[in-house]
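Lab notes, practical 5.
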Amino acid sequence: MMITRNNLNEILFENQDARLLIERVVSHTQATLYYYHDDEITVEKALEIYNRAMRAEKEDASSCVSFLDFSREKNKLLYSGNPC
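Output from the prediction step:
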């Protein structure tokens, strides 16, 4: 599911810091985040996403940055910068 400000309560976060970082990304950037149910977003992952989104916003608003993290089977979070 795509993460928006309206559905943050449906997502599992490690703590409030992780939630606030992701909320800032979806509120203040053109990033699109997709969440796979029953995954917990850790502070480390949220900080990585936040930093990438902020860097992409500063560098070039028309570029597309994306990654799919399968480093752990349960940690599948898709981040896409501006829609391509």
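Observations recorded by the TA: Residues 67-76 have pLDDT under 50 and may be disordered. Helices lie at 16-28, 43-59.
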